[in-house]
Hints:
This protein has helices at 6-21, 28-44, 50-73, 79-108, 124-139, 149-157, 170-173, 176-179, 184-217, 225-256, 274-280, 283-297, 305-323, 327-345, 354-373, 377-387, 397-416, 420-430, 437-461. By secondary structure, the protein is mostly helical. It folds into two domains: 6-180, no CATH class; 187-273 and 349-461, no CATH class. It is globular. The longest helix is centred in the middle third of the chain and has 34 residues, at 184-217.
Amino acid sequence: MLFSSSIFLFAFLPLVLLIYYLPLRRWRQGQNVFLLAASLFFYAWGEPWFVLVMIGSILINYVFGLWVARAKRAGRGARAPVTAAVAVNLGLLFVFKYLVFVLGIANQLGAGLTVPVIELPIGISFFTFQALSYVLDVARGRGQAQRFPLKVGLYISFFPQLIAGPIVRYETVAGEIDDRRENWADFSAGVCRFAAGLGKKVLIANQMAVVADRAFALEPGQLSVGLAWLGAVCYTLQIYFDFSGYSDMAIGLGRMFGFHFLENFEYPYISRSITEFWRRWHISLSTWFRDYVYFPLGGSRVSSAGRHIRNLFVVWLLTGIWHGANWTFLAWGLFYFALLVLEKYAHLGRGWPTGLRWLFTMAMVNFGWVLFRADSLGAAGRYLGAMLGLGGGLWDERACFYLLENLPVLAAAVLFSAPVALRLRDKLYGGGLKRLSPLWDACYAVLLLLVVIVSASYVVKGTYNPFIYFNF
Length: 472
């Protein structure tokens, strides 16, 4: 079930809110059990049997959490249960997400193995990392092991962040499972955040997807330089508004129920270095790898540059692999590893003018998204070649048509990928224009209402509604 679907917007969400806030208003345990049941139903909506994988993950990690807590009480340390938890969770992820890919490689080398048909459970990378976070945070003393499996189930399966993140760390919400405090300020802020995210997804990302999909579907000889760049830029904007819009909706939904998730995006396309970009893009994933992989390996506080480069290599290799079983994702992760090493040790970009640093960063990010979007390394190479002039000329009628047809949405996407509205609001509330803040509030409310109405009309009409991170 998608957040941007009519069944979610007009049936599931209103019904869940009504039951949560009316008959269960003052019964916390009843609310938690209800949210767990609603979340499992939400996950089972498309492919019912996948929910069994989810329930299995919940029960296994509930046991691991108890094992960790018991080992710590006995003074034995948590190495054994943590190792077992990592092995089991990553083993589950490997079977569903990577086994077919690995067997295919083995067959290309002449192994002659039977390759099974394995469907990928939706969002398995997200809920597996959350499950691991539960065990690891209990081991690190960042949260208490839950005595009841239903509470572990609620943390892992809570529907706002279930299929596309953000990856919510257990330490972030451990106290809110029982002791959250719902209030009108949080609820209204959550509604506004959800509405903004819905608009980003439906009104911008989905429109950018049309141009990107058509450009990437063409053969290299049919791609002019202009169309190749237009398609790549549209995909760059699509993936940002698609994923950040979904994160906004998840954060907003969490606020409606009294949960406070951390931010997942912070205007990454204003970055002036690759390092800064990854501090702003998919923050929950990058901080997960930082805290659970990079720091345990020693991070940057190691005895030599070689060990630091090794640590970066491991993290970015795993980041690429996390995104999918394809050579393109592996190459995408290593592409960022190379750029970060160049920034750190070759001082790439240091001393450049600010505008040039931003331009270079966005060019590299754009090239990276082409690699991420392509079906194969060969397809990525051909598309990048077209962007560099090895395709069908500099400009063509198709590029002109797509540009003019989508120019308003493209302009809005570029504008809202920077914190223009945020800075205007801060200036109104904190500067000499404070007297205009009531006007800003009124305009903002009207704008959000229009966004919801127009977005809902698109959803009802059943327009093109892809979602990139749905498969991760």
